What we know:
By secondary structure, the chain is of the alpha/beta class. The chain has one domain (about 5-30, about 40-510): Amidase signature (AS) domain (Amidase signature (AS) enzymes, Alpha-Beta Complex). The chain contains 17 helices and 15 strands. It has helices spanning about 5-25, 45-55, 60-80, 85-105, 105-110, 150-155, 200-205, 225-230, 255-260, 270-280, 315-330, 350-355, 380-385, 395-405, 410-430, 460-470, 500-510, and strands at about 80-85, 120-125, 160-165, 180, 185, 185, 190-195, 215-220, 235, 260-265, 300, 335-340, 435-440, 475-480, 485-495. The strands form 3 sheets. Strands 1-3-2-8-10-9-14-15-13-11-12 form an 11-stranded mixed sheet, with helices on both faces. The chain has a two-stranded antiparallel sheet with strand order 4-5. Helix 6 links the parallel strand 2 (about 120-125) and strand 3 (about 160-165). The longest helix has 25 residues, at about 5-25.
Amino acid sequence: MLIWLRVLGILLRIANVLLSPLFKFVGGSRRKTAFPQIRNEMLEIPAVDLAERIRNKELRSEDVVRAYIDRIREVNPLINAVVEERFEAAIEEAKKSDDMIANMQTIWLIKNYPLLGVPFTVKESCMLKGALYTGGSLPRQGVRASGDGEAVAQLRNAGCIPLLVSNTPEYCLSWESYNHITGRTCNPYDNRRTAGGSSGGEGAIIAAGASLFGVGSDVAGSIRVPAMFNGIFGHKPTADIISIKGHFPMSTDEKFCTFLTVGPMSRYAKDLPTLVHIMAGSKAYKLRLDETVYTKDIKIHYMEDFGFNVGLVPVDEEIKIAMYRAVQYFKDHGLQTERAEFDDIGDCPEMALCSLQSLKDLPNMFDDRENPKEKHNLLVELGKAMIGQSQFTLAGVMFYILYQTKHWFSPEDRQRYVDMKDALRKQMIETLGTDGVLFLPTYPKAAIRHYESFGYITAVIYTMLFNALGFPGTHVPLGLNKRGLPIGIQVVAAPYQDRLSLCIARELEAAFGGWKSPQ
């Protein structure tokens, strides 16, 4: 345990309390009274069912795409999740899908285009040919993708139709989706609160019923935290299963693909296995998603937090209760359940941070394409960002300051925590095996107010740890808290056992209702 890291966590939490009045002022003091109700039933059909109905000519892809376009236009002024739309192109692609269905055999369509005619959305940091590809960075304003990222290409090859690219923080370096180009994305359940980050635009547009599923990316919880805040499903796959080719930012460090993963975000759990299988492409066989999984054979391990730690944000009681209800549900149905205990779990902040700081060639938002010789001083940029005079966001600058704390670790300490991380990984693999999952919080609080994430940096340890370990994790919504905000838990499995957490997600969806409309 490093005392300075715990003290830093305490100081940040104190700062949040002191700055709370300011957050309420700049983040909005009035909650919207209502969110537009979903009136078109086509918007509430899971992707796999929608694809089947389109193939069977019960619905036309063009009508579905137009319905989603109408919904996007209706809700985006309230949440500001869209960076750029491609509606005209999507309608034309939908017409082509309908023509193909009219002229091809169903069996051939299922084999070659399993999601033909189904619309989806894409996080702006994942390449979508012709669309903006700025990574929320002002110096990159106007940059467009020259092609599709590999995961996006796999979905398009399966017949899916992209509608837009969605908002993300600068360089994906925040758990709130805000940048100097698009502005901030609001939570559809409460506009005073963030939609999370860095896949916050996806989280908000999906939760609002304006997208069925989307492509997100996750380097320290960036799929699962927005999924939590917006009450949808989000899956971070086993490391290096779904290609990160075409993502911005990127690193040449071979370990970067352990931390950064690309994965699906969806309103419905039943869609996740199909989406993961498609997005994984030639590596899908490693996950054995086609195998039948019997829920009764899965062992449930659980932990409500990482133990007493004054530097960590306490887990809300409502989240703990929701997890206990989920555990009890499976216990009542005959599954084996037990509280998990792991060695040195209290030192997981140090383990995860040292692992992240060990990366070489970390993407640098201060690299100026126009003036490559220009150097930026971190403290100067911090001061400018705090008064709104920097071309960089405060969250982005804060990340690099946090990264520089690596100099506060001695080489011996850093190696010790990396070794502890490796030992924890081995112990977790042995505990979970090929038939176990772990329930734990995704984030210790429901959606926080805009700008509060600065004081809750340590809260992401519940997701970041599993990026460092390379484990798959699925966020599962478990209803709303007393304030009407989504809460849920993370279901983690051992590497390549994604099918287990996806199976449990679907069971929990059936038991607790899954996504709840923000209306």
